[in-house]
Amino acid sequence: MKMKAFSQHGPCSAWLMAAILPAGMALAQEPGTCPGPLAVPDAAVASPLAAPVRLGQPAADIQGVDATGARINLARFKGQVILLDVSTMWCVFCQEDTAPIQALYRTYGPKGLAVVTCLTEDVNGAAVTLAGLRQWTGTYHLTLPVMNDASGVADGVAETAYVGVTDAFPTLVLIDRDFKVRYIQGGLDLDEVTARIKALLAG
Fold it and tell me: Tag placement on the chain: N or C end, fewer CB within 10 Å?
């Protein structure tokens, strides 16, 4: 899998670089993203459950549990505009983006925007447990739904369908009311995402 870059102003930790990059591999620069996935850094992600999504096509459903322990799936929000944030617990930029994503939820949630964070890997690249979900929501004071991906790590639906397009964490996805993908990008460009949210809500 192609590796995404570490930002000069906000790099992921040195131990993570050593763990996922072959010796002597250079780092290209692309601010705002960590490479992904950690669990299979050199292999193509291939899940029998999903394929990388395409713009204009139906979104891939994700199933798991939320921080309360309740079962949740992405398709339950069909009929709303959805902002999906696919993140990992080890990604520095995912951590930094929690505040602006929560702000989008607070501002546009009452206007019909569903915001969902799907955590696919914990700090060790393993599956995210209920305790991990609760830690994430508590640490970053989140009221938006935070879920894991019950289909697995690295080759699960969230990473295959969405991170498989960007090769980066976080991956931000906008899904329209008909549950079709309208935007997908590695890293949070807040101005662009906000403008697209407004357009989809007005459409």
Answer: C
Whether 5 is covered by a domain: the verdict is no
Convert the pLDDT of each residue in 42-53 to its tens digit: 333 344 557 899
Query: Per the domain annotation, does 173 fall within a domain?
Result: yes
Q: Report in angstroms the alpha-carbon separations of 27 from 2, 6, 69, 180.
A: 11, 7, 38, 34
Its domain, for residue 75, covers 14-202
DSSP structural state of residue 50? B
In a domain, 77, yes or no: yes
Rounded to the nearest 10°, the torsion over CA 131, 12, 191, 168 is -80
Q: 25-29: which pairs have CB atoms within 8 A and are 24 or more residues apart?
A: 27/3, 28/3, 29/5
Structural domain tally of the chain? 1
pLDDT tens figures, 130-178: 999 999 999 999 999 999 999 877 679 999 999 999 999 999 999 999 9
Q: How far is CA 159 from CA 10, 22, 107, in A?
A: 23, 21, 27
